[in-house]
């Protein structure tokens, strides 16, 4: 995205969507992890000023409010570790964090420790996490730069060594596709971010595939670093540039909760998702009732790949791990596929014991249409 010059800048719709997602996720993450641990940590490498032009809260302030509420209900402790390189923003952030702390009780302020460093995020953040002993305990790290790429793979790798660490990284593919081909320095910056040179194959991709290619390469990078499950959110900034927010976790529960958060994001922010497994790459509006047409296409193909079909638990797990959908949407999707005559279920009732097979007379890939005229 275009890098703002002022200490505090206007909050654009994609930032509002990102904040909504973060809040929804942290509201699930904090109580679950606090119920099992005495202390958990939230960290940001690119913390910002803590406030936007019209007074909207920045991500550290949003996080503080969520955690304060969780700590009201549990006698536990949390740490917020923040780094911000710009001196004016770091100063403003200190002011904003003091304000949000003052909104809550002294008891919360004692148990919700805030550490702000005016520093380049790397290696300052990692060093701090080590010193306070946050590595190896539940830790959520938001690396929300303007898109970079500016997160060294070595940092991701270090964080990924710990099973209880989760990361969320903002990744903008534009810089590399636009400038890296002809500039060796920029290419090296890409190598550092991806941890290898494989991403350079982007230069041979057709123009329409370049961003998707880089996004998938970056998800692979996160997996290489240890984050076995990844999920991405596609956002478009105010200059119509694409930005991906990529989440990495080593826990299926984290994935499940992030998906829940993702489908709860306020649709008025205009965020949409696209399932990489959907052959039609249909964009999904966020709606109260998610459009499950792509999920049905994905499940149909997955069922068709196995001569004996799939069980409902298999379909749910596949949905959780391989699509943007939630397992809770599987039963309805299978019922719709059966109503369309595409699959059969044995027994008829759809539950954990049900085997789902393709209806023999149907070709594997029935012609597909747009939403509403599905098969
Ligand atoms: C996208 S903004 C962060 C917004 C914030 N996470 C929020 O949602 O409210 C990126 C921030 O990273 C800061 N920044 C840029 N390079 C940095 C670096 N190397 N280390 C630390 N902070 C950096 C910028 O000054 C800016 O405030």
Please give a structural write-up.
The chain is α/β, with parallel strands linked by helices and 375 residues long. It has two domains: 13-274, Rossmann fold (3-Layer(aba) Sandwich); 290-358, Arc Repressor Mutant, subunit A (Orthogonal Bundle). It is built from 13 helices and twelve strands. The strands form three sheets. A seven-stranded mixed sheet has the order 3-2-1-4-5-7-6, with helices on both faces. A hairpin with an 8-residue loop joins strand 11 and strand 12 (355-358). It starts with 12 loop residues before the first helix and ends in a 17-residue tail after the last strand. Bound molecules: S-adenosylmethionine. S-adenosylmethionine binds next to strand 2.
In the sheet with the most strands, the strands line up as 3-2-1-4-5-7-6
Low-confidence spans: 366-375
Number of domains: 2
Radius of gyration: 22 Å
Query: What would you give as the CATH superfamily of the largest domain?
Result: Vaccinia Virus protein VP39
Helix content: 40-55%
Distance between the termini: 39 Å
Shape, per Cα inertia axes: globular
The string of secondary-structure elements, in order, is HEHEHHEHEHEHHHEEHEEHEHHEE
Assign the CATH topology of the largest domain: Rossmann fold
């Amino acid at each position: 995205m275009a890098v703002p010059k002022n200490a505090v800048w206007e909050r654009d719709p994609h930032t509002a969507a990102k904040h909504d997602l973060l809040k929804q996720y942290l509201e699930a993450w904090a109580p679950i992890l606090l119920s099992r641990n005495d202390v958990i940590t939230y960290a940001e490498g690119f913390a910002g000023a803590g406030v936007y032009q019209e007074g909207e809260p920045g991500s550290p302030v949003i996080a503080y409010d969520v955690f304060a509420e969780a700590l009201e209900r549990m006698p536990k402790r949390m740490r917020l570790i923040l780094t911000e390189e710009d001196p004016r923003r770091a100063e403003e952030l200190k002011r904003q964090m003091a304000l949000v702390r003052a909104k809550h009780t002294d008891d919360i302020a004692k148990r919700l420790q805030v550490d702000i460093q005016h520093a380049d995020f790397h290696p300052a953040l990692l060093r701090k996490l080590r010193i306070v002993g946050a590595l190896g305990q539940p830790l959520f790290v938001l690396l929300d730069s303007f898109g970079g790429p500016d997160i060294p793979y070595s940092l991701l790798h270090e964080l990924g060594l710990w099973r209880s660490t989760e990361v969320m990284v903002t990744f903008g593919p534009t810089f590399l596709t636009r400038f890296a081909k002809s500039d060796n320095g920029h290419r090296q910056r890409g190598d550092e971010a991806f941890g290898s040179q494989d991403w350079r194959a982007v230069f041979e991709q057709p123009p329409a595939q370049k961003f998707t290619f880089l996004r998938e390469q970056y998800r692979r990078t996160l997996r290489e670093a240890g984050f076995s499950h990844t999920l991405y959110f596609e956002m478009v900034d105010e200059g119509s540039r694409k930005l991906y927010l990529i989440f990495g976790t080593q826990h299926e529960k984290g994935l499940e909760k992030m998906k829940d958060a993702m489908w709860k994001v306020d649709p008025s922010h205009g965020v949409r998702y696209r399932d990489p497994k959907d052959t039609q790459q249909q964009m999904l509006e966020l709606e109260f009732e998610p459009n499950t047409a792509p999920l049905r296409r994905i499940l149909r193909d997955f069922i068709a790949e196995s001569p004996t079909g799939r069980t409902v638990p298999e379909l749910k797990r596949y949905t959780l791990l391989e699509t943007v959908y939630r397992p809770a949407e599987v039963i309805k999707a299978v019922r719709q596929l059966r109503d369309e005559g595409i699959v059969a279920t044995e027994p008829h009732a759809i539950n954990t014991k049900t085997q789902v097979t393709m209806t023999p007379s149907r070709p594997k890939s029935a012609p597909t249409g747009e939403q509403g005229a599905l098969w």
